[in-house]
């Protein structure tokens, strides 16, 4: 590696966040991404281009702590939780003052003065919380970070161990184990990130086709469709979110879709035909149910509703063959 490339790589590895970085990053984001781009160019000159010699990437997200403490991050729930003990303390001090007025001959002593000072301080805190709560209404996600305005509160694997920071999405080449694409977001989960990473990958390396693997948190029909539109085959396990199986009830996996007739065959052998279309979260869905539900002998194990309604995304039926293949690969 040449001296310039080595120096660029060293400077890139030594980058550390500090209090001034958020103010610098907003207007100069393109400049700050330069070190990573230069490092990628150095790798490309000294070896085969990573993204072209093996078009297989693994995508995952990592939480990075921002220079913003949890106490300086506010949501409506946090403010209400912090105001409650303050209000209780104010009431307790007022009761103590009332007791002092009845028991003290003069009705006024040093202890009472201290209580009034504490009440004044607590009421200032309550006014500050009211001001911050008003500010929250201006933010779409109803969250405010005082030190680093772009940072957001995010949950982690441990209970009560959330951090205020960023969710960094990274695509790693599976052959060379090198980062080929990254994107910093302040969204606390990975849902909705798969399609964005696929688009970024294609824009950066221009490769026609690639394969991407990700964890369950990335699964979603629109995300897999977005990957397909960006020439990326997505391999994502389908999350098992339904509790019906544990309760001994039938799940959607027990239903068989008959593509030729556009109907479902339920566990009782009845046919669920198409009834109407609807739109949910921007997705065009087709809704099915069998006519025999009210008199079905297996109804106790199926649905508490009068009819077992089944929703299916239109792209699963009328989309291009690649979409249906991708959905099948990930366990749909």
TrEMBL record:
Ranges annotated as biased composition (Basic and acidic residues): 17-29
Region Disordered, residue ranges: 17-45, 135-158
Name of this chain's protein: Transposase
Source organism of this protein record: Paraburkholderia piptadeniae
Source taxonomy: Bacteria, Pseudomonadati, Pseudomonadota, Betaproteobacteria, Burkholderiales
